[in-house]
């Protein structure tokens, strides 16, 4: 069928209990307009399948290099080198790897496949007030796919949440809004300029979308701030974001302490990790902002 | 006696922890056993009831142990190598000789005369021990191996025993001993010559004799006791003075009566004690006769008494659920039990909470709290699924099924209504390995397909053909299990009446018949199935790789299996990568259901056909999955030879990779109407569980709503098990749920430890 809507999915995670209320399944969609240096899912930034290479599992047998139709793989010393510009994502190397050291992220799935998978846990959503969370990447990047998932989920009576950078056309956000019960809206800096500088995203559009969304559905919004030393872990920045939320009548802000669990993914992608050596933070580091929330009349929570 | 014979005789339940040493000297023990034996011989021409009663008079009250200084209840017993019982965990079945313990006693003795006397006992009981007689007369060659080392080479094994009897303690407390006797007397008026009834009547006098024995003992203990202890002893004595003839008035009386009766009846599972004791407890609270602190201490003492019996896989104590006479009062008892469970952290009692629509929130919270603390108790049961399921499988009204009470590792009885002992076990994976070798078991090279004609591997052209032969083999062995079960009852019935048990089971007195002689309302039974999931995962791999993908032939796979995958590593990986049960994957779960339906429905249908009221499978586990796995060759699911098999209903360790909801979804796909007990384990990392206790509670509730019948939860620290294997001294209190029982991890054998380690642990940061 020509009109079957498909999309590229990084992962579908069941029993996700940190991406919104209750028990959820989180669908991670590929593709993101931002390039946050601390990104914990760097393999989700592009829509096309991403080759991940785990050198610890590699047997150095060269099977992948011999089979690669693009001749994009060479053995150099004790590891492999991939010419990622040549890679077309055919996954021949992954299929033939005896050590399972090569793994492509990004599966093309139909909306039906996604819906079939997420509906298996419907009873758990119902009993816990949970549902699905569409995350990314940035879900709005593959809008048709994303929109169809929301539509079908709603038809099945499944509650929906989206985790978004907010960097998308307002028209799309407006169209999807009635199908979304909860917006986990990322705000990574307090001013448009700094957002642009650090993440490469359109800070003006992001903040404008937040304002417009708050006008029609403030109660649905939770602002999420990944707190990253060296980028936004500053009193005035976090205070400004919390104050912005309060001024827009947004009921909740989550401050997410920095973790480095994405670090080894960079290695597997053949990329450098900009935050090498940065210490993990704990919820306790951010606990004192909860009082600011009380003062301003909204819920501020360390962790989310 | 040859070593092999001796080893076979020594085969008995594994003891995780040794029992308290016998209070009697070896000489005294020999004397009692001789007296027992002499009585057994003397009454050999009398009725079985008379002989049983006279034998019981030898051991009661002689074998009652002293009350220990911390005990707040009376009722401890020594079980000698020869005596009367129901199960091997304490003594043996019927008139038994526990040969292993007899030889242990013999090995500890030097006096020549005693050795000779023990040898004489050995000679007598070699002829008359119930299990030995049964084995000699009934068990077919194919069922078991030549000796202890090879017993698990057989695809099934069977034997007689009477496990998990759940007596009518409400009747005991409602009527008291005199009341029970009056019921029997009344019935005797109709049938004055009924010797079973006459002996039942006299057996009740033994209860009184035992009370008096303890009353005398307490009088002596009082002389040296301090004030506090005098108070405690007086309270026990007051209870005994009441219950020796009359019905209980107070909580202590009811508990003492129940405990002592269970002890004399040889019962090591106690059932729904909240239903029995709740009313007394609340009345005592209201009148001020008992404080909550005192009640708490008494329940602690009960916990210790149950633990000290060290039955490992028994000691069930159940609270909650439908069908209780006064739920609010019963819940008061349940609350105390939950508090004690959390404090005591013992491997017994196997404390169980039945959940239903009216379970109070605070009871649920307390239960989650116990689990978060790593108690492994309570195990959780879901009435909504279990009751209709059992009503169907046992062919009884739902009202009676409300009285379900699991025993042992999770097999079901209906309290006061059923005999449902699991006297047969089957290894479903071994059948696959036998089929792959055209009838020969690679583990010992012996032909084990009996009359079943199996095709050559080359002659299977479709998966359906392969499945068809598996069905034939499965039916052949399952039918044999049912038959063995029936013969076991029949044989026990020729030997004994189980007087104490019969007296508190519907409808033995009313019918004037002993338990197994037409007395019990529903004579049923169950078949423990092992390797279920390895078998179905093997069939999945065969279907996918041989008949769909055509990647390998059956012969190629079998060659790899015979080589235990040496030189076939890629194939082993492919077999492991095939769909696996436990991931909510319809492909794998459907075949798991095919195997389940095949076996469950066959047993369900064959029971009545062979003369039982009902028969069903139980998917439970003790450590048999590990022990039997050690005697099962490599299998097409990618499992190596002599490796443990999957525990109960759970996936093979590590095969479930899609999170807890997916694993639980796979579990609920089995139709609960065709089994009489299934258990499932789930393991969480401690901090993860504690941090997310509310959502994990909702996960459990979701699972129960979806049709989950049962759950057993282990919560432990990251790497605790690994570390405990290296530094056992640092982990003396680490309790794990093996499956049908909990254990201190460091007391388990290495193979069992490795199986536990292999299970998926749920955690996330």
Question: How does the SSE layout of this entry go?
Answer:
The complex is a heterodimer of chains A (304) and B (765).
Chain A: E1 6-16, E2 24-29, E3 50-53, H1 63-67, E4 73-76, E5 79-82, H2 92-96, E6 102-105, E7 107-110, H3 111-118, H4 122-128, E8 131-135, H5 143-155, E9 160-164, H6 170-176, E10 182-186, H7 192-199, H8 203-217, E11 221-227, H9 235-247, E12 252-257, H10 263-269, H11 289-296, E13 299-302
Parallel strand pairs in A: 2-8, 8-9, 9-10, 10-11, 11-12, 12-13
Antiparallel strand pairs in A: 1-2, 1-7, 3-6, 4-5
Helix pairs in contact in A: 3-5, 7-8, 9-11
Chain B: H1 3-10, H2 26-42, H3 48-59, E1 82-85, E2 94-97, H4 99-107, H5 112-128, H6 130-137, E3 156-158, H7 169-190, H8 195-224, H9 227-243, H10 251-265, H11 273-287, H12 292-309, E4 316-319, H13 327-344, E5 350-355, H14 361-372, E6 379-382, H15 383-394, H16 398-401, E7 404-407, E8 411-414, E9 418-419, E10 422-427, H17 428-436, E11 440-441, E12 446-447, H18 463-495, H19 499-503, H20 508-511, E13 522-523, E14 526-530, H21 532-548, H22 554-562, H23 569-577, H24 586-609, E15 616-619, H25 624-629, H26 659-667, E16 675-678, E17 681-685, H27 686-691, H28 693-705, E18 710-716, H29 720-726, E19 735-737, E20 742-744, H30 750-758, E21 761-762
């Amino acid at each position: 069928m020509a009109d079957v809507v498909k999309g590229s999915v990084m992962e579908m995670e069941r029993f996700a209990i940190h991406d919104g209320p209750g028990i959820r399944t989180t669908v991670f969609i590929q593709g993101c307009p931002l390039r946050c240096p601390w990104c914990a899912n760097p393999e989700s930034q592009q829509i096309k399948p991403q080759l991940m290479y785990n050198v610890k599992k590699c047997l150095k047998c060269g099977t992948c290099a011999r089979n690669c139709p693009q001749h994009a793989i060479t053995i150099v010393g004790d590891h492999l080198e991939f010419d990622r510009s040549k890679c077309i994502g055919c996954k021949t190397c992954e299929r033939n790897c005896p050590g399972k050291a090569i793994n492509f992220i990004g599966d093309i799935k139909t909306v039906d496949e996604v819906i079939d998978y997420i509906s298996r846990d419907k009873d758990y959503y119902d009993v816990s007030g949970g549902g699905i969370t569409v995350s990314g990447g940035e879900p709005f990047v593959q809008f048709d796919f994303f929109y169809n998932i929301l539509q079908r989920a709603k038809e099945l009576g499944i509650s929906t949440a989206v985790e978004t950078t907010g960097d998308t056309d307002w028209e799309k956000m407006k169209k999807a809004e009635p199908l979304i019960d909860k917006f986990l809206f990322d705000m990574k800096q307090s001013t448009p300029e700094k957002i642009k500088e650090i993440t490469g995203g359109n800070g003006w559009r992001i903040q404008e979308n937040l304002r417009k969304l708050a006008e029609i559905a403030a109660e649905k919004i939770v602002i999420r701030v990944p707190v990253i030393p060296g980028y936004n872990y500053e009193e005035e920045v976090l205070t400004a974001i919390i104050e912005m939320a309060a001024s827009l009548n947004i009921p909740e802000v989550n401050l997410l302490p920095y973790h480095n669990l994405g670090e080894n993914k960079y290695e597997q992608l053949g990329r450098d990790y900009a935050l090498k050596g940065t210490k993990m933070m704990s919820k306790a580091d951010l606990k004192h902002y909860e009082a600011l929330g009380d003062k301003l009349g909204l819920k501020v929570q360390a962790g989310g | 006696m040859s070593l092999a014979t001796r080893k076979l005789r020594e085969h008995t339940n594994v003891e995780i922890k040794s029992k308290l040493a016998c209070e009697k000297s070896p000489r005294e023990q020999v004397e009692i056993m001789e007296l027992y034996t002499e009585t057994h011989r003397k009454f050999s021409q009398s009725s079985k009831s008379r002989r049983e009663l006279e034998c019981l008079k030898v051991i009661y009250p002689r074998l009652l142990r002293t009350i220990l200084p911390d005990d707040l209840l009376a009722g401890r017993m020594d079980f000698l190598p020869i005596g009367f019982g129901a199960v091997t965990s304490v003594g043996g079945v019927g008139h038994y000789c526990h040969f292993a313990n007899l030889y242990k006693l013999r090995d500890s003795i030097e006096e020549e005369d005693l050795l000779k006397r023990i040898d004489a006992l050995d000679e007598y009981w070699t002829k008359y021990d119930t299990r030995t007689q049964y084995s000699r007369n009934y068990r077919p060659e194919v069922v078991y191996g030549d000796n202890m080392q090879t017993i698990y080479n057989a695809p099934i094994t069977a034997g007689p025993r009477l496990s998990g009897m759940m007596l009518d303690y409400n009747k005991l407390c409602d009527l008291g001993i005199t009341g029970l006797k009056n019921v029997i007397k009344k019935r005797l008026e109709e049938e004055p010559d009924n010797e079973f009834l006459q002996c039942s009547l006299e057996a009740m006098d033994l209860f009184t004799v035992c009370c008096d024995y303890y009353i005398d003992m307490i009088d002596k203990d009082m002389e040296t006791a301090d004030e506090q202890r005098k108070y405690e002893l007086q309270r026990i004595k007051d209870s005994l003075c009441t219950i020796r003839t009359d019905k209980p008035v107070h909580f202590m009386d009811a508990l003492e009566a129940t405990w002592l009766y269970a002890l004399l009846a040889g019962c090591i599972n106690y059932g729904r004690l909240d239903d029995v004791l709740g009313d007394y407890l609340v009345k005592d609270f209201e009148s001020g006769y008992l404080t909550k602190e005192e009640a708490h201490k008494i329940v602690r003492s009960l916990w210790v008494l149950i633990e000290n019996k060290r039955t490992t896989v028994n000691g069930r104590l159940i609270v909650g659920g439908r069908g209780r006479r006064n739920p609010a009062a019963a819940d008061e008892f349940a609350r105390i039990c939950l508090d004690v469970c959390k404090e005591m952290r013992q491997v017994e009692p196997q404390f169980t909470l039945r959940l239903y629509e009216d379970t109070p929130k605070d009871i649920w919270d307390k239960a989650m709290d116990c689990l978060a603390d790593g108690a492994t108790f309570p195990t959780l049961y879901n009435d909504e699924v279990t009751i209709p399921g059992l009503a169907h499988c046992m062919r009884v009204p739902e009202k009676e099924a409300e009285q379900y009470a699991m025993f042992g590792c999770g097999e079901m009885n209906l309290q006061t209504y059923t005999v449902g002992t699991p006297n047969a076990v089957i290894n479903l994976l071994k059948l696959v390995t036998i089929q792959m070798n055209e009838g020969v078991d690679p583990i010992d090279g012996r032909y084990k397909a009996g009359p079943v004609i199996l095709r050559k591997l080359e002659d299977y052209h479709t998966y359906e053909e392969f499945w068809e032969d598996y069905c034939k083999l499965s039916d052949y062995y399952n039918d044999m299990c049912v038959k063995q079960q029936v013969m076991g009852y029949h044989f026990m019935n020729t030997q004994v009446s189980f007087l104490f048990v019969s007296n508190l089971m519907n409808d033995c007195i009313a019918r004037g018949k002993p338990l197994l002689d037409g007395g019990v309302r529903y004579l049923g039974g169950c078949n423990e199935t092992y390797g279920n999931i390895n078998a179905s995962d093997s069939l999945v791999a065969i279907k996918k790789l041989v008949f769909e993908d055509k990647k390998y032939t059956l012969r190629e796979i079998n060659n790899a299996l015979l080589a235990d995958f040496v030189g076939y590593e890629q194939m082993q990986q492919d077999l492991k990568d095939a769909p696996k049960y436990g991931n909510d994957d319809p492909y794998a779960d459907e075949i798991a259901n095919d195997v389940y339906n095949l076996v469950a429905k066959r047993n369900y249908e064959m029971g009545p056909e062979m003369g039982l009221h009902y028969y069903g499978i139980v998917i439970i586990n003790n450590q048999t999955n590990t022990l039997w796995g050690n005697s099962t060759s490599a299998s097409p699911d990618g499992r190596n030879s002599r490796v443990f098999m999957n525990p109960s209903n759970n996936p093979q360790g590590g095969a479930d990779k899609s999170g807890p909801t997916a694993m639980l979804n796979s579990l609920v796909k089995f139709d609960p109407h065709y089994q009489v007990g299934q258990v499932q384990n789930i393991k969480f990392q401690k901090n993860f569980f504690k941090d997310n206790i509310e959502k994990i509670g909702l996960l459990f509730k979701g699972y129960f709503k979806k049709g989950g019948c049962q759950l057993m939860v282990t919560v432990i620290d990251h790497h605790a098990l690994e570390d405990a294997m290296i530094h056992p001294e640092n982990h003396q209190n680490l309790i794990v749920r093996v499956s049908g029982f909990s254990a201190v991890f460091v007391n388990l054998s290495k193979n069992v430890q490795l199986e536990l380690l292999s299970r998926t642990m749920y955690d996330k940061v």
